[in-house]
């Protein structure tokens, strides 16, 4: 018999996030995965996948709504949502085309397993497995855990793995007495942010509403290396260095002396949660003061410690915080998710490859033809993979126009270099107009094509 349970705080957060997506953008919640199957037999692959499904409740979970409240239903068994496809070729281009087709298909939020795959074979031999997994059930860390366990299972069908708490057990803990102090602490943190004031000048949208946005990505191999060098010198983390520079740029563009930034918390800091397979990520807001008279070192360290304190409260009941926020004034459009989490920052280290601070490969700036048209008015997503840092910035042009986005991205490039080599320089030096090395920012960087 299926077992019903409340959602974890991470599941509820993902639900509230995804339900605000316009219907033709809901596929944006899908996470892609591509697993190499060359050299394996079909029987070995399907046995490993079946073992993963039996092992992890998240892969056997559907979501449902009762009286407006979402809940989860864990099934004892499910059929593998994997389609077998025989094709003439199985090269990298074919794999990428298959993945793109799969990731573009949205999942219904209710009564669906929220994951599916295409297993491509050539002349009966498996070549690759393309997976699409909704953020409703898994986060990026969980997908990595599954991949590691899959590799172990295809080598040894009896392989075991150290497991974290299953979602329904975690949900029970989060809503029970053992989490009472943590829930109180999270509410106290939110009240502090609300009393300090959100960035009220940032316009937010109702659920499923569209607005033209701008989106650009700065690719640089050197920025990540310098961020790590600066972090080591200042006794902070590389994400904190980049976040502090982004916050300084937003303050400059908006004329503010503080920025309320929403930080992506993986909520895997405790040993018990590190191996949990589910969706744990949540955004946690923090008010970051920006003193233009401070040194770069003072600014980065101050924002690092403010963020560190906020991360302690990164797991919370978003519905409860919406109730708390109502005491401080309701947004006219009623979309609490957009209103409370307006300006967000996420830093994701995909692999263990260390970026080289001396790598002089030219940086590249790319404008997205169709930017995400809904949700928060400003966001930054940093992804570090294979030694390259990709810094994606999306902005409502009424908040930060195209030239302002370029100014912030230049500030990040200049800032990591200064923080690594001369952090006692004043924060205002970020905007000195100094020409940057092409490895940090392209010399010929234009705005979006018209």
Automatic annotation (TrEMBL):
GO terms for biological process: amino acid activation for nonribosomal peptide biosynthetic process; lipid biosynthetic process; secondary metabolite biosynthetic process. PANTHER family: FATTY ACID SYNTHASE, NONRIBOSOMAL PEPTIDE SYNTHETASE. GO terms for cellular component: cytoplasm. It comes from Nonomuraea endophytica. InterPro entries: CAT-like_dom_sf, Condensation_dom. It holds the Pfam family Condensation. This is Condensation domain-containing protein. Transmembrane segments: none annotated.
